[in-house]
């Protein structure tokens, strides 16, 4: 049977400057029969322009309802070596920091129980261990738990929260995104590991409005750090930028969305009209040595972000414009609990929280979770007169 | 081909171990499945969940959402996992002979 | 039974000492050379982060290789970015050049910081997804083989540019908010295997799964039927019912989207919008896709102002000029027909002729 199989199409993807995933696959295939099977099946997909994974697959470990994604080849006779090719979602470290010791332990476990192939990381944030068979799933998890790695979320559950690097290495961090991430992850283990919700629920945390974790677009509940006092300007540093030929007028003053910045050429001073600044980050991004975030820091909570499936994409909406973020983040957890309880109760199968809000109306939703409306929640008030009034709000009629 | 033997009869299973022909479900099949899904002894509580799932499916043509299952049976999610260590979808639905739960993961 | 619900390793145990000591104390950063970010702390500490391209789909040898490097130069710690790059964190400045030299000697690429094209966020594709229309990894490799000078800083661009690839219309991976997104699409209606529907599908769930109401039960066959005129080929029904098949190698392909962003800098976050509705699937190198993406980058880079993202640029010049400058045809396919469509119809006489 051991005739040498060729992969002419995939081989073309070994050429070129960008690091090649095919090279990674082929190296793994030398040590793992299952990885070799994958290479064969993938070559067939390239040739036939169609995927070869079967629908569904429901595989797991004891005590959890998620964290493992079952995969089967749709043509096990042709691709016997990857007939079973399950994935484990392993909860990443917050901020994606690792000691090499931990990574080596992980590699040793995965070489023993699987293909030795990974996604570092999956797009939700987990470490994805690609390819093992049913009988190795439980032993692999047992070995992972011994080195301190737990599984992430899948299915109708809280998906593994993820975050930007935050205070660990960013001067713009308004909140401790990594600590919030870690804290919430530990707090919501049950919600992650035992799916009981209508569909997925994602939480992502970015420590400033640059939103490096893409939280507003990609998570049902986004936590975005910001400050609510004035930006801090180091005038000497501004002068240095100007002296070095930095185009202050063109690159900063005119790009400030609210024209909040003025350059006093006489006194060589950069002035900000604090009440006009929308905390957009542009000037800070452009002149990191001279302009800093303010001191009164917290986060905005955004709700409903998601990709298009089922009823169209949303970029998250403002739920809370500003909230202090101090461990143990009790106020935040209360909001999360109220949101998820309401959604779990009222959401239909496969309805994300953003779609539920679209269906029932934001006002109804806010009332249900006990939040007062504020103007920051809308880009503009309604433009039609079809207002809902409840019986208590109108005079009783005879 | 995957199969499970019940009273000397081979019943076909899909790759995840769910029965392919829903009509071949029987109480003896549940007993056979129990072993593979880590259920040590089938108790009244197990049957309560299994019968609830089957009745719900017969009535509505779908499996209940998990929250509904907990509410209607009175078991907490944790208790469901204690009963069926592989969970309500992979464990309880399989024993109840329901179609394999789907969904994007 | 194994222990459960213990969560991931504590990040505090995974931080290099310089990061632990300066946590929350960083003052500013600069980018002394492409792919190298210098952070300065209020304690006076200086940290160099060296950003390395990764294929994302990697093996254990690769993991051990980056561990070797991090042990040699970074005290045994490293991190990954949200866009799958590896970062080597150097606290001893004398180690910076030797690290760069070694990475170069080993054939690794450095870049992706500041105004650059960073690594591509993408989905599994044929490698591991059951609903993949195309191969995300192959598309990324092909596109970045063309665009790597924008990663490594050999070609400078006015702002950052984020690319994402999703192998189906689920648009996982931030495709709906990326400067350029490549998304696999279907063009034909799902095919029904009636016998299998009867056995394996929850019919009410399948009917309810369709966002356009195109599906109805077919009681005679204990199956369902699809109204082809209403079907927008979203594939939702195929997710809940294994008996429906939407894969169609002759007709599936790739679409290209532009102008999305997630950052709040200057302007609010934006959706990506359709630029090219369909390009045929052409593995292993997808030349039509790579040409189009490269062209889009070039047209934008030539015309955009400092810090101006693709979407902001288009907002400034207008969509009519976008289609003119890029030479891409505007067709009926570009006009939205789904939920919220009317919000995209124009209600002003302000045009750019
Ligand atoms: S943060 Fe944005 S809005 Fe505020 S002053 Fe700077 S550029 Fe203007
Ligand atoms: S592909 Fe989408 S639109 Fe077409 S029938 Fe299925 S769910 Fe409905």
Describe the structure in your own words.
The complex is a heterotrimer of chains A (398), B (105) and C (353). Chain A has 398 residues and is an alpha+beta fold. Chain A is built from 14 helices and 14 strands. Chain A folds into three domains: 139 residues, Alpha-Beta Plaits, CATH 3.30.70.2500; 141 residues, 2-Layer Sandwich (Sulfite Reductase Hemoprotein, domain 1), CATH 3.30.413.10; 61 residues, Alpha-Beta Plaits (2-Layer Sandwich). In chain A, the strands form four sheets. A five-stranded mixed β-sheet of chain A has the order 6-7-8-13-14. Chain A has a four-stranded antiparallel β-sheet with strand order 1-2-5-4. In chain A, β4 and β5 form a beta hairpin. In chain A, α2 packs across α3 and α4 packs antiparallel against α5. The mean pLDDT of chain A is 95. Chain B has one domain: Orthogonal Bundle (Arc Repressor Mutant, subunit A). In chain B, strands 1-2 form a two-stranded antiparallel sheet. In chain B, β1 and β2 form a beta hairpin. Chain C has a five-stranded antiparallel β-sheet, covered by helices on one side. Chain C has a five-stranded mixed β-sheet with strand order 7-8-9-14-15, with helices on one face. A two-stranded antiparallel ribbon of chain C has the order 10-13. Chain C folds into three domains: 95 residues, Alpha-Beta Plaits (2-Layer Sandwich), CATH 3.30.70.3340; 162 residues, Sulfite Reductase Hemoprotein, domain 1; 55 residues, Alpha-Beta Plaits (2-Layer Sandwich). Chain C is an alpha+beta fold and 353 residues long. Chain C has ten helices and 15 strands. In chain C, 27% of the residues lie in helices and 20% in strands. Chain C is globular, with a radius of gyration of 24 Å. β3 of chain A pairs antiparallel with β5 of chain C, so a sheet runs across the interface. The complex binds iron/sulfur cluster (2 copies).
Keywords:
heterotrimer, A: Alpha-Beta Plaits, Sulfite Reductase Hemoprotein, domain 1, Alpha-Beta Plaits, five-stranded mixed β-sheet, four-stranded antiparallel β-sheet, 14 helices, 14 strands, 15% strand, globular, B: 105 residues, mainly alpha, Arc Repressor Mutant, subunit A, two-stranded antiparallel ribbon, 49% helix, binds iron/sulfur cluster
